[in-house]
């Protein structure tokens, strides 16, 4: 885990409203030290399986494994690429992110896992690598932060070797984002109210400083979350950038109805109050509902699901 992030000053936050890239760096640098805890990110069987299943759901596993040279954009603390490496899907991993704090966090997580990875600060709109360098480019929950997503796809295709693949997972759909935000805000208010009750306060309530910090984070979150996606429009964007073999996949319907209140509840209580058994319960519930969602996907239009992932190939 990272230990490098500092809270942004009031002046920096004010400047961030005028400069989106600065906002991204401030917000994510700030989040880096607590990001794994906030999102229950780990590098054990639970998250290896989660990352591998998302990857396979999107690609259908068409290529021989592992991909030798892999780049992750907006890697954060390394959740996607480090777990895909542990799953045997990626070999040599380069973690990049616009936020220096996140790059440090990802490198620290890699070191903790005993991996040697390359890490670099990089903007996905101007990737600092040569043409035709990577066999695969991956990303998770990143392109909704990028102002010009089509420019990022063009850059991804430039740094991929001919025939190389990109896989971007975990992006919010237009419809899904609406219900997730509503459920999240209701859960936040309810959890704050309930954890202030006398019998629960000591063990569960976040202290005032942590709550104030969460509120400032929520204000900046509205600035850094730039897009939600319609799956077909997203595919057209990748095609316009020059990709072939483009395919999208949506996931999480009932799993999102339950998952978002769970994730918000986790973020709204005192850090460490919930523990490992809770994390396994939350993941187990999410998995059971995801199985239901795979059946529902036969009848419910793709755009109603919460998450969209996309894959495509550089013409070879
Ligand atoms: C929601 S976090 C996801 C992190 C990680 N991929 C995960 O799933 O845990 C989004 C990440 O994208 C990064 N980011 C935002 N804008 C970016 C850009 N233009 N280029 C590269 N990374 C960017 C942020 O700094 C942040 O670490």
TrEMBL record:
Residues 71-168 form the Methyltransferase type domain. The keyword Thylakoid does not apply. The keyword Transferase applies. CDD domains: AdoMet_MTases. One of its GO terms (biological process) is methylation. Keywords: Methyltransferase, Transferase. InterPro entries: Methyltransf_11, SAM-dependent_MTases_sf. GO terms for molecular function: S-adenosylmethionine-dependent methyltransferase activity. Signal peptide: none annotated. This is Class I SAM-dependent methyltransferase. The lineage of its organism: Bacteria, Bacillati, Actinomycetota, Actinomycetes, Micrococcales.
């Amino acid at each position: 885990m990272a230990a490098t992030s500092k809270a942004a000053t009031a002046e920096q936050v004010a400047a961030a409203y005028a400069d989106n890239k600065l906002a991204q760096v401030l917000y994510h640098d700030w989040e880096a030290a607590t990001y794994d805890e906030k999102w229950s990110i780990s590098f054990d069987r639970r998250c290896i399986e989660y990352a591998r299943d998302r990857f396979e759901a999107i690609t259908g596993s068409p290529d021989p494994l592992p991909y030798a040279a892999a780049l992750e954009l907006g890697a954060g603390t390394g959740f996607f690429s480090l777990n895909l490496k542990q799953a045997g899907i990626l070999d040599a991993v380069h973690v990049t992110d616009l936020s220096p704090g996140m790059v440090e966090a990802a490198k620290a997580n890699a070191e903790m896992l005993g991996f040697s990875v390359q890490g670099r600060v990089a903007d996905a709109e101007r990737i600092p690598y040569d043409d035709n360098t990577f066999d695969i480019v991956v990303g998770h929950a990143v392109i909704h932060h990028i102002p010009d997503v089509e420019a990022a796809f063009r850059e991804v295709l430039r740094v991929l070797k001919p025939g190389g693949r990109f896989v971007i997972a975990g992006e919010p759909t237009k419809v899904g984002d609406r219900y997730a935000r509503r459920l999240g805000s209701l859960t936040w208010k309810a959890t704050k109210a309930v954890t202030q009750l006398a019998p629960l306060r000591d063990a569960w309530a976040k202290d005032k400083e942590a709550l104030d910090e969460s509120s400032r984070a929520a204000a900046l979150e509205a600035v850094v979350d730039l897009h939600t996606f319609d799956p077909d429009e997203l595919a057209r964007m990748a095609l316009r950038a020059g990709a072939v073999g483009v395919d999208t996949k949506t996931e999480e319907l009932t799993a999102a109805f339950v998952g978002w209140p769970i994730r918000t509840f986790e973020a709204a209580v005192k850090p460490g109050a919930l523990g490992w058994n809770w994390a396994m319960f939350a993941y187990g519930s999410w998995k059971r509902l995801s199985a239901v969602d795979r059946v529902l996907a036969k009848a419910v239009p793709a755009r109603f699901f919460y998450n969209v992932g996309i894959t495509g190939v550089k013409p070879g």
